[in-house]
Amino acid sequence: MLKLVSAVSGVYDLVVGAVLFLFTAQMAAAFGVPPPVPEIHARLNALFLMVIGAGYALPWRDPVRYRAYLWLMGPVLKGAGATVFIADYFLNNSPAAFLLFAASDGALALWTLIALRAKGRGHRAEGTGTQREKGKG
Question: What is the C-alpha to C-alpha distance for residues 120 and 68, in angstroms, rounded to an integer?
């Protein structure tokens, strides 16, 4: 399941980043906000998203080795991002349409967390747990 989570999360970040990078003004208009001034702020966020999306190729190819990437970019970053979108909606009256990002980031964060925890239980079940878990300490 970690490979699927990596693929979906990577494609999501690459697509959102590319659309934001190429169509900054149109995205702002679609969400009912003025374009950022200077526009470089949105483009840097878009670049950030695309690099994170490309980074998901690492856990997609080797989810065990790059498990930390999934923890950082999934539950930590996407979970925090969803929280910030929700807080901004209530505290700063950001457009309700921004809650779409809270929902998508939150869903990906939760899915990643579930996949990571399921994989961890699978490792222990396969006998690769610590010495204490194996009853030797």
Answer: 12
Q: Which DSSP state fits 18?
A: H
Measured from the Cβ of residue 10, the count of other Cβ atoms closer than 10 Å reads 20
Helices 99-125, 79-92: axis angle to 10 degrees equals: 150
Instruction: Give 101-126 as a 3 state SS string.
Output: HHHHHHHHHHHHHHHHHHHHHHHHHC
CA angle 120, 84, 117 (to 5 degrees): 5
The type of residue at 62 is D
- Is residue 87 predicted with pLDDT exceeding 50? yes
**Could you tell me the CA-to-CA distances from 110 to 45, 87, 128 in Å, in that order?**
22, 18, 25
CB 17 within 8 A of CB 46: yes
The pLDDT tens digits for 119-131 are: 555 444 323 344 4
